[in-house]
Recover the amino acids of this structure.
């Protein structure tokens, strides 16, 4: 009877169990993401207006893809001009202003789209639009209609939120299988060399 090395077997078994657990976790995340995407699709179709969320992760998550309105009382420069598309799908730049909205709060307002990186002057005012994800778990208000001087930005689409958890799960299960095959081959080689 061939002996199985205990320490390396325990290490491989622990690694395989961890990879399988990560695969199962990704499958659970996939289900959660599908529920979240369905909630986003309902929000954007509903058209109900909500208060623009504070920079709290849970509040932002709950408000995404709903309509909202802010009163941009003042703008703290600089503007953030980034590559983006307009409502027709043309490439250019979308322009975000850091607006003071009262109560010590601020909101990133995507005022609209232009062909080039320069933006029209805008001193602020009331803006209505859709709440979309921004960086670091924050939200931005995509002006709809755009503010004066800008063209309409592309509407945020919940379908653009990636849901690749199934691919990650398959990847972890594959890694676990490969680890078992490699360990099996290594054991077979070791046993042959000992004969």
């Amino acid at each position: 009877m061939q002996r199985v090395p205990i320490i390396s077997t325990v290490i491989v078994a622990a690694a395989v169990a961890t990879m399988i657990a990560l695969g199962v976790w990704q499958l659970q995340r996939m289900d959660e993401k599908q529920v979240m995407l369905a909630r986003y699709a309902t929000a954007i179709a509903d058209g109900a207006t909500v208060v623009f969320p504070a920079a709290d992760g849970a509040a932002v998550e709950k408000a995404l893809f709903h309509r909202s309105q802010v009163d941009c009382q003042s703008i703290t420069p600089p503007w953030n001009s980034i590559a983006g598309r307009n409502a027709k799908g043309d490439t250019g730049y979308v322009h975000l202003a850091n607006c003071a909205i009262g109560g010590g709060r601020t909101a990133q307002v995507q005022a609209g789209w232009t062909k080039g990186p320069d933006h029209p002057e805008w001193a602020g005012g009331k803006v209505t639009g859709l709440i979309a994800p921004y960086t670091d778990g924050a939200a931005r208000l995509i002006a709809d209609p755009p503010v004066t001087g800008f063209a309409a930005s592309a509407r945020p689409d919940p379908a653009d939120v990636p849901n690749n958890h199934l691919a990650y799960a398959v990847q972890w299960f594959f890694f676990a299988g490969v680890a078992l095959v490699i360990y099996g081959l290594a054991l077979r080689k070791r046993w042959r060399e000992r004969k």
User: Anything to note?
Assistant: The chain has two domains: 6-32+164-194, 48-160. The helical segments are 6-46, 57-63, 165-194. The mean pLDDT is 90.
